[in-house]
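## tool: complex_structure
## caller: assistant
## args:
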Amino acid sequence: MKEIITLTRKDLQLLFLDKTSLIVTFALPVMLVALIGTVFSRSFPSSTGITSYDYAFSKVMFWGLIGGVASSVASLAIEKNSGTIIRIQLAPVHKVHVLAGKALACVCVILISSLVTWVFASVLFGIKTASHVNLLLICFSNAVFFAGLMTFLANFVHTERAAGALSWSVLQLLACFSGIMFPITLMPPWMSNASNFNPVTWAVKAMETVLWRGGTFSELWLPVAITVGGGVFFFALSAYLFRWTTQNA
Amino acid sequence: MVNLRHVTKRFRAKTVVDDLSIEIQRGELFGLLGPNGAGKTTTINMIIGGLLPDAGTVTLQGSGSPRDADIKRLIGIVPQSLALYENLTAHENANFFGRLYGLHGSDLQHNIQRVFELVNLTDRTKDRVNTYSGGMKRRLNIAIALLHNPSLLILDEPTVGVDPQSRNAIFDSLRKLKAEGCTILLTSHYLEEAQQLCDAVAILDEGKLVAKGTVEELIAQHGGQSVLTVETTKGRSRIETDAPVDAIVRIHAEEQILSLKMESPNLEKAFLKITGKHLRD
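## result:
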């Protein structure tokens, strides 16, 4: 466990030293909530019980997370192709430790990003929740899913640019099938059915439930199980696929 | 300390290392020399367990496999590419890699201080690595590899792109380590550097071992004769001889020497004779 914490600390340290990553990970979500909340501000009469910013927050938060996921994918891809991986490989750590360190750093980044977005959104736009504990639970389960997905995607890229491109492409595709881009009720039946197999759909549903109604355990256990299960599945798959990069010259 | 027996490694159809057998004794400073593509880095990767040979065996410390956790702890690696986080300070880099080896607290800080002193970097440890010169980065690259007190230090081209001052600092560090009993394996493009530092060398060419032995043996066998260029009152002459001192004494007895230049046999000449090409070809 010490090795994982050491690897996580180093990744967080590097992230906080990178201004671009900081802006993409922490400032972008707040800006998106403000912009999209403003666009929808006339669509939500007060009788509905939720504001346009509540609506924007539940969905836009995921766009904000893409930045954190993309920078984590890049971090792992770059590490695998730099000299540092040779030292790490030679140190008494297992490949699962390396992946777990990266994944834990990604979970921390997503949680901090969610927290920052939440604090700003609640102060600036009055977004509320009936249960902060449930909100934290959903943020955590979403973070586990995205961290698992991040470790999986990192197996297929070798450069920072490719990491960004792949992360955005995959997450946009998942967003299309999740109700983030357009409501599930507007989807054709096949697409609506397919969205049930997308963990992001459940992540959005859970976030809406927590923000709009507070949510009970019976409402939340299934989305939490699906997102956490999805994250663990992708992590296990990436542990299987992971290869130490070696020079061949 | 390190034993390679009939090791072969192929990448698809290409044989990169071909039936290589070398033995590195404990406390020895061993040079693995050869032009680009000779198989040096692949050989190192097999020694550290990053690659498995297709044939033959690699053993360390008698019969240990490079992939054993206990054996891995004995090895310090200085890769050709800088294995450093450039946005972190030297001290933060050392802290991170030290902790990966299970070092903590005062032990870790003591080791960090020791390795920074060894490579003469104590005054810049709080600076970010991206503010360092190329030579300082190379020295830090070496320092990090020494944090856990390895008994085998492997350096892949440690002086590439390094200014003469840093190169001398690196040489001094390696000599100190050797004096402390550390076994050192280094690859290098610079034969004069290998000649200065190494006890023994192996020369690889296109994956094959073409010569091995002590530096003195290789120079004696393949380095040719000393070349004297002598200018006297009677004119200029070039003499190839195995006994240059005797030749100088003889000339001096017969004529007045105005200028004298002597080229001794060296590893560069031996390499040229053995492989038929210069190392940088």
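## assistant note: The interface with chain B takes residues 2-3, 6-7, 9-10, 13-14, 17-18, 82-84, 86-93, 244, 246-249 of chain A (CB under 8 Å). Residues 95-125 of chain A form the longest helix (31 residues). Handing back to user.
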